[in-house]
Automatic annotation (TrEMBL):
Any one biological process term the GO annotation gives: 'de novo' pyrimidine nucleobase biosynthetic process
Native source species: Pseudidiomarina donghaiensis
Gene: pyrC
E.C. number: 3.5.2.3
Alphabetized PROSITE patterns for the sequence: DIHYDROOROTASE_1, DIHYDROOROTASE_2
Single GO cellular component term: cytosol
Name this protein carries in UniProt: Dihydroorotase
Annotated positions binding Zn(2+) 1: 13, 15, 99, 247
Functional summary from the UniProt entry: Catalyzes the reversible cyclization of carbamoyl aspartate to dihydroorotate.
Lineage, top ranks: Bacteria, Pseudomonadati, Pseudomonadota, Gammaproteobacteria, Alteromonadales
Amino acid sequence: MTELTITTPDDWHLHLRDGELLANTVPATAEVFGRAVVMPNLVPPVTSVEQAEAYRQRILAQRPPENNFQPLMALYLTQNTSLETVRAAAQNPHVIGFKLYPSGATTNSDAGVTDVDGLDNVFAAMAELQVPLLVHGEVTTADIDIFDREKVFIDRHLRPLMQRHPNLKLVLEHITTADAVAFVESQGSNVAATITPQHLLMNRNDLLVGGVRPHNYCLPILKRRDHQLELRRAAVSGSPKFFIGTDSAPHAQSKKETACGCAGCYSAPAALPLYAEFFEQMNALEKLEDFASGFGADFYGYPRAATKVTLVREPWRVPEVVSTAVGPMVPYWAGNLLNWQVK
Ligand code: DOR
Ligand code: ZN
């Protein structure tokens, strides 16, 4: 196969950041993807519908000419999120749901949730109004090893949450473990998961063997190979519960290559070719389209795109560095070859 034409994909988990960097991040995604769920972990966080509307306008202002990219805004759930905000979100066509960051779990999560069970009335309203909850599933307490944080979050918080609210529409974001795959598979069709390219293509050896690789450092952290293999199985299984979500998370090179580096892989410049690389490795390129362009839209209740994109099998090297408004940035997979490129 030398060409692959698929329905235009969507990115169901994306960080665009704000300010002058939008001039780089918005086109990088909009040139390939039709829609993206835009994460709200700005400073200050996007906690209200009004803030999300204003942020959406700043994003739209950076769309390339004649591009119809649609940002779908996630609101940042806090311990103070009110039922009014849930109702306002349910009524707003540009807001897709709420993002739950456990406080301290990752970049700009300080304002996140400290007591999941204390938000039960909010979750009840979300279930009733069918407003999706997007979850960063990691506990943050010092007694839990960083490699166990996803599993413990599922056992401690997610299973009980789904028992209390069996109709809650829930996306477990950027899953990294066999435990997460099993949890999602054990639930009804209202529970799904996104999977990033780095968690499909890499495991923790790629982070730590032969030296620390800061550009492969993201959260939840890459896990051992057995977990990677289970994610790979789930992604090609044809189950509609697993779909694309790059978690492309740009940080300046100076913030990654430093004594205390930021978490996040800037995968947007190569996102679709990275997934194509994975599906080709699995001999399952025919499964790419549903994963990238179908199951996410189906889950969230959007029509699949009416447009197409074409990938060609012409190897190319991901740039070592890309220049952005906040300085040089090292994209994920920098300097390495990919077999597919977007035509
Ligand atoms: O690696 C990550 N980077 N994981 C997250 O959850 C957040 C993201 C970011 O915003 O940089
Ligand atoms: Zn993220």
